[in-house]
Amino acid sequence: MRQLANVLAVLLFAAFAFVRPTQAQDAAAVHTDPLNLNSSVRQGCEHFYNLDYDGALRIFNQVALAHPQEPMAWNYVLMTTIFRELYHQDLLDTTYYARDNFLTNKRQVDVAPATRNDIETLTNRVVSLSDARLKANDADKNALFARGFARGMHAAFITLADHSYAGAARQGYQARNDSEAVLKIDPNYTDAKMAIGIQQFAAASLPRFVRMMIGIMGLGGSKEKGLAMLRDAGAHGIATGVESRTALSLFLRHDGRYPEALQVQRGLAEQYPHDYLFQLEVANLLKDEGQGLQAIDAYKKVLADAQKPGYFTDPRLQMAWFGLGETQRGYNDIKSAANSYTQAASQPNCSDWLRKRAQLNAGEMNDLLHDRPAAVKMYQAASSPGGDQTQADAARRYLRTPYAGK
Description:
The chain is mainly α. It has 20 helices and no strands.
């Protein structure tokens, strides 16, 4: 089933980035919001793409206070607030979205009321500021882009935190409409092609009944057109170049076009060597392509780099350990997989949801190793009351009957 593509589309639309202006980008500056080229914004984005969300937020708050009537200034704050929360909830590991059961997962994400309020307030502020500018000038392309971007980021949040697919899909559709309006005003506003490209791919991937369910009937799409627009935005976009390539990589992965996806992802990893997620995604792609031994080496390199002081900011090592365990399990290296899952579960910043997934898998591996006491300990932890309960039924079943699968 292809409904996964729409969820990925919503997620990726919100991953905003700014790149350092080249000479060509300077020449095209008229086709982007001037604030995207602000030196403080670029400095903030360096922090953002090293996953130093706190550092980025400090800078972006200063930018917003200096430009309080600019909707894009508050978009930077909104972007960082959302992605800091998603990262801390272990929701930015694409392995989570690799199978359609993500859509039916009953995981509950506990977002602090203050954080949720900040996200709603910031989204409303960007939309209100944009609406006010559009009321004065309905051809304000920067206001249209900013409004669409805020809607896309909010859609990502409610998709991942609340599983609100229908609401998110409608916001994504509104973001596409805003982007199409931008391109009618300025066909060279390449950044706007990202949202359209994502929606083109997603709409072409969705079965008819899913489109009916989430209320976006009549929305046409083409995978190849979508990928082409993402390539264009990735190559020439001033504000959306990085995340357009991120979307391109993930959509190619979704369709099993792993060599193409790896080429794109390796480019991102080389551009941002201290971005933990970009390095991790190379390993994930190698795993999915079936290059298990190379994937194992890649996961181990990520884990080794994480031991270097200051190399990564706040690395969520449970993601790498879990991916390594999955790959080792695929190679029937049961003992190593058991250790990797156990390592994932033991990370101090691990979300309860990922910890219990790792505990369940570690229990399965221990059962295969005929270490029943160790398996029982893990199943008991995975089924413990309170917190995430998505693994509880399976863990209780294996407490009664040892796991005997693969």
